[in-house]
Design a protein that fits this description.
Structural class: alpha/beta
CATH topology of the largest domain: Rossmann fold
Helix content: 40-55%
CATH class of the largest domain: Alpha Beta
Largest sheet: 5 strands, parallel
Shape: elongated
Strand content: 15-25%
């Protein structure tokens, strides 16, 4: 599936991430020291994804990201115990594609890795615009040109939104949404979908009470139009 470089100094976390990425079919190259990783990147950077911890011995992940961006557009994912909004913004400004705060859910990490290592985004473009809001499918956020990041999606919100965009203009039943987004191993109710739609309307509709994008189709389900 590809090769990933992991730069992380917590040995237990290195072993956990490496094992699970290898189970997903990736080859994983690991470094536990920022300076050693920097020396390696000076000579070699042919990876499908680089995962960086922020706080590393000798050279920080932020400094490594700057070095990487001078040479390559390889996708970069930050993992960090520094999970404040300001830290995330700093990482993204340095050119990272995504930022995941510790402690994190392993399934979410693998989902983000899957998105970042795909040859193409799950969508035709990594970003999608609704009104004045921009959905960043790589970073799981919605941005506004005047306010910056205004909302961070959960993985289920992101999957549901992705499903709507892929099926734009088509009436989708609640049963199909539950099957495609939640799968057969989980048992949410149709009310769960309704709550997600309320969130989307608050974010994207000019008037949530008169939706122009997320339409309810009585007795069937929903239809999305951009």
């Amino acid at each position: 599936m590809g090769t990933i470089c992991l730069v992380e100094d917590e040995e237990n976390l290195v072993n956990l991430i490496k094992l699970n990425l290898e189970l997903e079919g990736f080859k994983v190259v690991c470094f536990k020291n920022g300076k050693k990783a920097a020396s390696h990147f000076e000579e070699y950077m042919l990876y499908d994804l680089i995962i960086l911890d922020v706080m590393l011995p000798e050279i920080s992940g932020f400094m490594l990201c700057e070095l990487i961006r001078k040479k390559s557009n390889i996708p970069v994912l930050f993992l960090s115990a520094k999970g404040t909004t300001q830290d995330k913004i700093q990482g993204l400004k340095l050119g990272a594609n995504d930022y995941l705060a510790k402690p994190f859910d392993l399934e979410e990490l693998l989902l983000r890795v899957s998105v970042l290592t795909q040859a193409k985004s799950t969508l035709e473009y990594p970003e999608f615009k609704i009104e004045d809001k921009i959905i960043d499918f790589k970073s799981f956020v919605v941005k506004c040109s005047e306010e910056g990041i205004i909302y961070e999606f959960s993985k289920k919100e992101m999957l549901l939104l992705d499903f709507f965009v892929k099926n734009e203009g088509r009436v989708i039943s609640r049963d199909e949404i539950l099957d495609k987004v939640w799968g057969t191993d989980q048992f949410p109710t149709s009310r769960t979908i309704d709550n997600f739609i309320l969130t989307f309307r608050k974010l994207f509709e000019v008037n949530p009470k008169i939706p122009q994008h997320f339409h309810s189709i009585r007795g069937v389900g929903y239809k999305f139009t951009s």
